[in-house]
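Subject: complex prediction, re-run

Hi both,

The earlier run crashed halfway through, so I resubmitted it with identical inputs.
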Amino acid sequence: MHDKEQNAFSSWQMNCPVSIPTNADYVTLAHGEGGRLSRKLIQERIVHALSNETLLAMNDAAQLPRVTGALALTTDSFVVSPLFFPGGDIGTLAVYGTINDLAVSGARPLWLTLSLIMEEGLPLVILDRVLQSIAEAAQQTGVKIVAGDTKVVPRGAADGLFINTAGVGELIAPIPSGAATLQEGDELIVSGTIGRHGIAILAVREELGLEPLPSSDCGSLLRPVEILRESMGHQVRCLRDATRGGVAAVMQEWAEASGMTLSIEEQSLPVSPVVRGISELLGLDPLHIANEGTMMIAVKQGAGADAVSFLKSLPETADAQVVGTVKHRGIAAVTIKRTLGAEQPLDDPLGSPLPRIC
Amino acid sequence: MHDKEQNAFSSWQMNCPVSIPTNADYVTLAHGEGGRLSRKLIQERIVHALSNETLLAMNDAAQLPRVTGALALTTDSFVVSPLFFPGGDIGTLAVYGTINDLAVSGARPLWLTLSLIMEEGLPLVILDRVLQSIAEAAQQTGVKIVAGDTKVVPRGAADGLFINTAGVGELIAPIPSGAATLQEGDELIVSGTIGRHGIAILAVREELGLEPLPSSDCGSLLRPVEILRESMGHQVRCLRDATRGGVAAVMQEWAEASGMTLSIEEQSLPVSPVVRGISELLGLDPLHIANEGTMMIAVKQGAGADAVSFLKSLPETADAQVVGTVKHRGIAAVTIKRTLGAEQPLDDPLGSPLPRIC
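This time it finished cleanly. Structure:
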């Protein structure tokens, strides 16, 4: 499917919302080499787009205030292809992805770093569009991008644009006790319809010709996590955004960490008609498809209905559902009761059929 | 020089210290997709190599203790080609680079994040070798790698292996006042012979046939910065590791930040015979060539000799020299008094002749 020629620049050419003028300026190797062009690119485009005082200081490291509480630290690289997709782009993904990792770990996101690896020849208007998305997502979630880095690699050595974000947050009590503390009877919740991000990427990439194109769930989980912390407190055992590998991968990891069996019911899973349709057509299971704004939550026995009703009060988690429970280790680490049939082990695939979805 | 075919895998094939068995295992797309193979790669190779309790928890974000002081945060991506070079590899570079950014900003490095973007087909023995370098460099400098991420992109979409590290440190008083506070008479120091990293990469990449190959200065600046802080205190105005763009790029940035002229004397610059020889042969100026373990320091008038003598007590900065002074803005932002001739403006090139040196 992807030979070298096809790969070159597929990332930005496909589904690109920006028209590239014929006399467009492009990223050159010199933009990455620490000379005048590097400083100009950083100051006039990147710092300008993300403008805040810490970045303006242009130090080797950002100097930041003291934090009262304990810290959380995370990192994620983004290599999604194409760069733009219905519901988001690599920039929104890079901000929300890292914010969500902090949020589900019990932290209030404070600061992000931003590192760009650009391929020589990337149009600067594309870079500007991605930086705008980053600035908007950061502003919407109240985090500051305080340090950055840019590298340029020769044509063919990277596909368009890769982004890394790292995030620092402050842990806020009560911190979820974690998957290792799961107990029999705990209830499992998904915060929204599943599989939307992976299907959105697939539909664009494979040019399935759907109209309208299905949209990614790419977004911030900050408010839903906050509402759970404030309303449910210690009732919440653990949370995890269900990205690569989908909800199934989270369940496998939690089952491993706890030694319990995680069991879900197929008929309670929220799946949109378009995701269900495309999945059936292509023989995919929405449980294995990536999300970028949907999480799994485990709460103590009896707390599921309340948690779901708090989540439903927010538009981004209006489709939350209790989907299963935690049991003593039985026939498999993760099981599913299919709509027709008995409880059976859920597939734990080696990989997934969708590379480069984030 | 670099067409697509040449680029593919040049990163690890060249100067590789590991022999690749004919039945070697390779990174596959499935290693990056969040399924069983992803978990296996992370647990058995990455967490194993870097083993510490925080990483073992395998949370979305590392939970870290409270830090007493103010924080510093930095990030850097590494795309060096080839992956291995005399004096280091992409792994040592990724650890020391970020540690040095924290150190010169006045911070004690505490924690690093590590994000790998791997090309499908990268031999796992190469990954293991790089992880070993990362583990050794982290241990030597007393920092912990506490969070990570791995992505795999299809063959041709990235060249071998890219690494991002982000670093969190605690600012330690007295914090250097910064380039904006430079004053007339301040003395400029370089901490060692310049241009070694860029020349080492160039010699490997262009197969110049030198024997022995010149070695990079890739290393930690933690101890030299500490000795200056402890011995010189408020006498130190600012420090900066002179990476991409070399010592010249640091001087341009400091001149911009302060509005002063930074003036150096060619004959005081420490340059090794091999760097001088290759530079003359290829028409390069060592001032523009990258370093990865050498910094520029500005100290108050009269403090230069003491600072240099403290630096000379450490093997990594045994060649430190006072190389110039800060003056009121004169004929140019940065000037050089050549060995033969009068003071003249120093070139501020658009880029540099050496892409992908870090």
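The radius of gyration of chain A is 21 Å.

- K.
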